[in-house]
């Protein structure tokens, strides 16, 4: 029995995702395919374009057997914790193989880097601090440190390699597998035609989710993206547009303006990710920004990347304080398996392993629940406010999607 695991956002589900899924199934000859998917907010520090239930349904319609939600507390983190949470779920579910997209398509090199990170030496930490003190952002400093060590230590290392988004996540998946001493094997599928961060559509059939989101949010129509997404995904996007249900940061900008303007510097400094000095920069720049996008452009610096700023502002929106971040205990992995949907095959597989699980399966919201699940519920309510869906009990009423 071959159990395939994929870690996804499907924000939105497009032809590149479909290619990756089909290729992963071919490589593994999977009997069951499990997706761990981000919920209402995603790893780049943004609200998902369409809600998690719609995205789970599309995933099931295109060959996923079981969709498990990655708790919000992990989904909005940097690559290391995002990967750790997702891999902890796949490990619980006895997944055989994790297949992830890769720009380099070089599993051996990514494994070398993952092992280097997993066994951080004094030399690694010293090099990292050197680049940070030079003023590099943390992601760039890690890349510089990796290159400074690998170029000297291996014949195959690429001179001044700058690992891109999928490779960075892949390295962290491999690192998490090693840290957990998991039996999960890893394979890669080469990313096709577009980069993860491409802002524009360059190909007739494949484009990045970023480019697709930008087009949809700008035009509020699917004419240009209809060849880039499968039919079911296109239908869902059209429905969301007709109901004014596409979500973005701009739907929360007024709230962010109020929070940054009314909170004291001491209050802001308690927010997770609010490094010393960032609160000053944000409070200053919000006075000049007419939109969320403009606030990000004004706030970016050599030290603070756009993604870093967005994640920090999302922590502010969700009131994720440094104290709450500690209480969530992310280093212990996911505290439950929240089922978003399944087909008959996925349901049968879940039933076959449920007695071996060390965390509960969540299909209905229980009265007694972990703090991590409470945080999911709060995030869901805030997400719904952004799309003017104000039924506070929505999340309590939702049941896993069952694809017949």
Q: What topology emerges from the helices and strands here?
A:
Elements: E1 3-8, H1 15-28, E2 32-38, E3 41-42, E4 46-47, H2 52-61, E5 66-70, H3 72-75, H4 79-92, E6 97-102, H5 107-118, H6 122-133, H7 138-153, H8 165-180, E7 185-190, H9 209-219, H10 231-242, H11 253-262, H12 265-269, H13 278-285, H14 292-299, H15 306-317, H16 322-327, E8 337-343, H17 344-353, E9 361-362, H18 371-386, H19 394-397, E10 401-403
Parallel strand pairs: 1-2, 1-6, 2-5, 6-7, 8-9, 8-10
Antiparallel strand pairs: 3-4, 5-8
Helix content: 40-55%
Q: How much strand content do the residues show?
A: 5-15%
| Count, helices | 19
Count of β-strands: 10
Please give the radius of gyration in angstroms: 21 Å
From the N-terminal CA to the C-terminal CA, the straight-line distance is: 22 Å
The residue-averaged pLDDT reads 91
What is the approximate shape? globular
């Amino acid at each position: 029995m071959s159990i395939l695991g994929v870690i996804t956002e499907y924000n939105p589900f497009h032809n590149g995702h479909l290619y990756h899924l089909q290729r992963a199934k071919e490589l593994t000859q999977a009997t069951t395919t499990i997706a761990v998917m981000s919920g209402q907010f995603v790893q780049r520090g943004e609200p998902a374009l369409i809600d998690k239930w719609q995205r789970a349904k599309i995933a099931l319609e295109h060959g996923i057997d079981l969709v498990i939600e990655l708790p919000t507390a992990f989904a909005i983190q940097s690559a290391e914790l995002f990967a750790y949470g997702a891999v902890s779920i796949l490990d619980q579910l006895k997944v055989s193989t994790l297949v992830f997209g890769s720009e380099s398509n070089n599993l051996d090199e990514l494994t070398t880097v993952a092992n280097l990170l997993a066994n951080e030496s004094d030399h690694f930490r010293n090099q990292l601090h050197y680049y940070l003190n030079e003023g590099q952002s943390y992601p760039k400093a890690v890349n510089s440190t990796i290159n400074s060590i690998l170029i000297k230590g291996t014949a195959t290392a690429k001179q001044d390699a700058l690992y891109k988004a999928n490779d960075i996540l892949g390295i962290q998946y491999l690192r998490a597998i090693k840290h957990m001493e998991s039996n999960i094997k890893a394979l890669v599928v080469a990313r096709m035609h577009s980069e993860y961060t491409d802002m524009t559509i360059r190909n007739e059939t494949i484009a990045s989710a970023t480019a697709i989101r930008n087009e949809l949010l700008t035009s509020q129509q699917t004419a240009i993206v209809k060849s880039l997404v499968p039919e079911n995904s296109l239908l869902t996007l059209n429905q969301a547009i007709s109901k004014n249900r596409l979500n973005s940061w701009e739907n929360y900008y007024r709230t962010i303006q109020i929070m940054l303007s009314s909170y004291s510097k001491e209050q802001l400094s308690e927010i997770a990710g609010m490094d010393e000095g960032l609160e000053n920069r944000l409070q200053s720049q919000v006075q000049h920004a007419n939109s969320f996008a403009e606030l990000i452009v004004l706030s970016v610096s050599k030290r603070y990347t756009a993604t870093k700023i967005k994640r920090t502002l999302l922590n502010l929106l969700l009131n994720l304080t440094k104290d709450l971040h500690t209480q969530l205990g992310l280093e212990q992995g996911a505290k439950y398996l929240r089922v978003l949907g399944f087909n008959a095959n996925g349901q049968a597989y879940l039933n076959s392993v449920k007695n071996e699980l060390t965390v509960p399966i969540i299909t209905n919201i229980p009265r007694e629940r972990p703090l991590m699940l409470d945080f999911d519920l709060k995030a869901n309510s805030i997400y719904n406010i952004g799309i003017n869906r104000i039924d506070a009990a929505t999340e309590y009423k939702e049941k896993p999607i069952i694809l017949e």
